Amino acid sequence: MADRILLAHGSGGKLAHDLVQKMFVDVLGNPILAKLDDAAVFTASGRLAFTTDSYVVTPIFFPGGDIGKLAVCGTVNDLAMSGARPLYLSLSFIIEEGFPQKDLEKIVNSVKEATDEAGATIVTGDTKVVDQGSADGLYINTSGVGLIPEGVDVSGGNARPGDKVLLSGPIGDHGIAVMSKREGFSFSTKLESDCAPLNDMVADMLAASSNIHCLRDPTRGGLATTLNELAKQSEIKIIIEEERLPVRDEVLAACEMLGFDPLYVANEGKLVAVVAAPDAERVLNAIRKTRYGKEAVILGEVVEGDSGRVVMKTHLGATRIVDMLVGDLLPRIC
Amino acid sequence: MADRILLAHGSGGKLAHDLVQKMFVDVLGNPILAKLDDAAVFTASGRLAFTTDSYVVTPIFFPGGDIGKLAVCGTVNDLAMSGARPLYLSLSFIIEEGFPQKDLEKIVNSVKEATDEAGATIVTGDTKVVDQGSADGLYINTSGVGLIPEGVDVSGGNARPGDKVLLSGPIGDHGIAVMSKREGFSFSTKLESDCAPLNDMVADMLAASSNIHCLRDPTRGGLATTLNELAKQSEIKIIIEEERLPVRDEVLAACEMLGFDPLYVANEGKLVAVVAAPDAERVLNAIRKTRYGKEAVILGEVVEGDSGRVVMKTHLGATRIVDMLVGDLLPRIC
Fold first, then answer.
1. Could you give the ipTM of this predicted complex?
2. Closest CA relative to residue B215, chosen from B262, B159, B175
């Protein structure tokens, strides 16, 4: 049992301390975390962004990532979508008794790799262990604090008629990659989750234009749900064009087989930006120059009237209403 | 099923949005949360404290509180123990499919009540739903951001020989109250969890003395583990006196029956303070004037030598080594 997580690892006692030191502090090591006080302390000044997400994805390891990478990228991206530079993250585990220590180690190493890429630091954490049957392996919560540079004002409520709607790349990769692993089917080509930190992309976009009105990453509920959120928050209408919508062939094929609509499938490394029309091309080019934005497109635009509605011009020239996700298309996708 | 949480409530789609609005925004309502952007935005300047904890207590409702109250108090107290004034909290749920909406509502109301008392605000949140059997009812993560006033320097590493060790009241109430409910035994008198926000107590202590060196709340692992942490971090020895140790009769009785040592039983509304000797009485009086500190005591002192060790002078005049908790005395106590 020495290679498994025990209830005592969550007791706050000796085993818990050893685990924290060996598994977390030694791997994620930095002077703030190493202090092991009840709270991390740092100095900051300005407009701060603060966000939280719990991650319950199944399976824990999937093509293109694992729950550790996802937990960092998801929270880093939520900070980036408010225009913030991610600085400090918390890392909290709920672990089912009996979970292999080796898997935990892999996950912590993924956390380390993703935070390094994002330029963020894990400064505080927590570990709880629950009895067998009271969780499904391991759940992670990350919260994050970031700094919003002076002059940046990005919010879901800022879209205005005339703005262009940009999308940073093909949709549905994460949802289909996780689903394929869960259901045990495979593709002739390799499909991986797009899970990635987008803070560098956002920094380059903000450097290219001071007229970026909204940023959002289309995770749970997919692109359709995100566009609906923006349309509702900004009280505008969004029109997108189907022929501009990037979707990989493997994703399309899997969606057809499973009866999914890629518009509703989760992404973990894509963003939607609403940008003032005169700056749209410049921002598009900035996105395309980044590591995760080579397939970015201008997908549509913001118009007046029909407040809160999203419509898509189809290949055939018809107009289809794109509603928010209803039901549970893909449970535990993040 | 309309009164139960469904998988779709965690999908990010329509049901999720309705739940967030009705259950969270309407109850916890404040302008920052109501924006519903990916991250909350606020302005801050100075030394900030940042902390996280996941809560997996069973049962979810226990004498003196519930998981919602606990999740707020625990994180507020972690901030307070770094000397910070709690400002902003995040609230993240992992809910098992089928959980009664009524219970969730009760829990959110407890969250509201506790944050109001602590003067903190829930500014961001997340809800995940997992399939039946993949969680035990409901788990909560709260993270928090607080501001450390100028001149305050509290850390587990700051204890010095000659300092006095203060304890804000009787130990073991939380652990025994939760355990009694879990195991279904009752007391002739009413024993409740001490679960409470301690930030007002800490503010009054800091106003009374600028020589408070360490603050820590003895939660998981109990008083013994907390004192050991302080002794190790500060590389000093701590001596406490058994005859000064406040323990309620019901707690003692339950501990004897169950074979527990109250020194290792969790508290959720108590703090340990290490204070420069000349200020100890003044700080003690400040604690005793607060709502949750009427039974505070000076429990012992910090001495040189035997770095990292905690000892207790017993009623009989003997000296007993008080080690850190080993094993899993009370799993899922917080």
1. 0.96
2. B159
For the domain with range A164-321, which CATH number is right: 3.90.650.10, 3.40.50.20, 3.40.50.10540, 3.50.50.60?
Answer: 3.90.650.10
B247-300: per-residue pLDDT in tens? Answer: 999 999 999 988 899 999 999 999 999 999 999 999 999 999 999 999 999 999
- Each domain of chain B, given as residue ranges in start order, spans 14-148, 164-321
CB contact under 8 A, A332 and B136: no
Which CATH fold would you assign to the domain B14-148? 60s Ribosomal Protein L30; Chain: A; (3.30.1330)
Q: Return the residue in B1, B37, B42 with the most chain A beta carbons within 10 A, the one to mutate for interface testing.
A: B37
> Chain A residues with CB inside 8 Å of B37's CB?
81-82, 155-157
Residues 6+ apart with CB under 8 A from A178: A57, A58, A59, A62, A193, A266, A330, A333
Average pLDDT over all residues of chain A: 95
Q: Under an 8 A CB cutoff, do B94 and A54 touch?
A: yes
Cβ A331–B134 below 8 Å, yes or no? no
Model confidence pLDDT, tens digit, residues A9-54:
988 888 888 999 999 999 998 999 988 888 999 999 999 999 999 9
Written as six digits, the tokens of B55 are 């809560």
pTM equals 0.96
* Pairing status of strand B310-313 against strand B237-241: parallel
Q: Could you give the angle at the alpha carbon of A126 between the alpha carbons of A123 and A128, nearest 5°? A: 165
Residues on chain B touching A30 (C-beta within 8 angstroms): none
Of A13, A45, A56, the CB nearest to B324: A13
Residue A251: DSSP 8-state: H
Across the interface, whether the CB atoms of B217 and A38 are under 8 A apart is answered yes
